[in-house]
Design goal:
The chain is mainly α. Helices cover 64% and strands 5% of the residues. A two-stranded antiparallel ribbon has the order 1-2. It has a two-stranded parallel ribbon with strand order 3-4.
Amino acid sequence: MIERYTRPEMAKIWDIEHRTQKWLEVELAVCDGLAEYGYIPREAAQTIRERARFDLQRMAELEQVTRHDVMAFVRNVEENVGPEGRYVHYGITSYDVVDTALALLLRDSCDQLLARTRRLAEVIARLAKEHKHTPMIGRTHGIHAEPITFGFKLAGWYDEMQRNLQRLEFTREMVCVGKVSGAVGIHANIDPRVEEYVCAKLGLKPAPASTQIISRDVHATYLSTLSILAASLERFATELRNLQRTEILEVQEYFAPGQTGSSAMPHKRNPWNCETVSGLARVVRGTLIPALENIATWHERDLSNSSVERIILPDASILVDWMLWKLTDILEHLAVFPENMKRNMQKFGGLVFSEHVMLALVSKGLSREQAYRLVQRNAAKAWEGADFQQSLKEDPEVRQVLSESEIDRCFDLQHHLRHLDVTFQRLGLE
């Protein structure tokens, strides 16, 4: 992934030297396991652990000959170990190393993403509580619907982030699986006890059944979780973009002194950070299809997944990490304009209280159809500039049923907000 959308913490996890170090950790654990069960001398395992190292430049040179990156790595380690190096990679296949090391990388990535997700959820929770009673209009189809509060909107985001956390925790558990089972997974030349030893030493579980590789549904689950998380972040970012539109302007991204919104129009304050989050979500979701296609392999494996995973796993991890960091920063510095929210809600003279008026008419004995027709007739006048509340008071058919004070009570904002506590209590946001 390009540097522009990369945070150092996640970049370090997927750095080639760090990845190769994980390969070495697996190889050393295998040697320790082989020694534990008497397959190689303990002294040899100790020598390997003391002398084993790698050099990326030398590996690149060897790969020019081997055309195989793991074999280049193994030969490089052997060169540095000496005669005992013959026990390196003993009885195992490349993907015993690659997939087990990959599990370590995915585990570390999940831990990083969990930390970022929890932080974002904390910021959302703080804002939700801060604006629990900040009224605004709720919109459906982009059209004014009924009053809510900004805190209520954010409470829904918080709820969604809790599910994202649950999926990440489940995924972390799923990816923490290794394999040391040989060329087709049947342990022909490697004792299953060694596999168990290696996985325990690395903090993993052995795959109950494997081929030459760990089944790719595991990795598809990881990318599915990241894709859903990215889609949530896009939803939040898209909402902030819409609320920042000039004619709405209920929130606004922080705009720093000297910042440029448009190269041509000095007045512009574009929601470019939110737009970036929205755009990158598309890239993340784009990694899911090849991950799903990687599940189907020929027999005990082919190589079609390998090249794909070199791209999609680090890229998706790095991008989602950046998106979480960026959206957290956006919300921590978000400008909220309660007066604009109030002004927008009051457009059309209380048109958004139409349902409450209709139900009041029904409660007085009108059919729902009759009540709907009366309210809609007066609502139509509001679209043309009339005051909805006043129109109702001047409608003789309405006044036959509702008094002026009863009409006024239908426009009580608190009626719509009276159950706010229920949602916040359900979410533990008190």
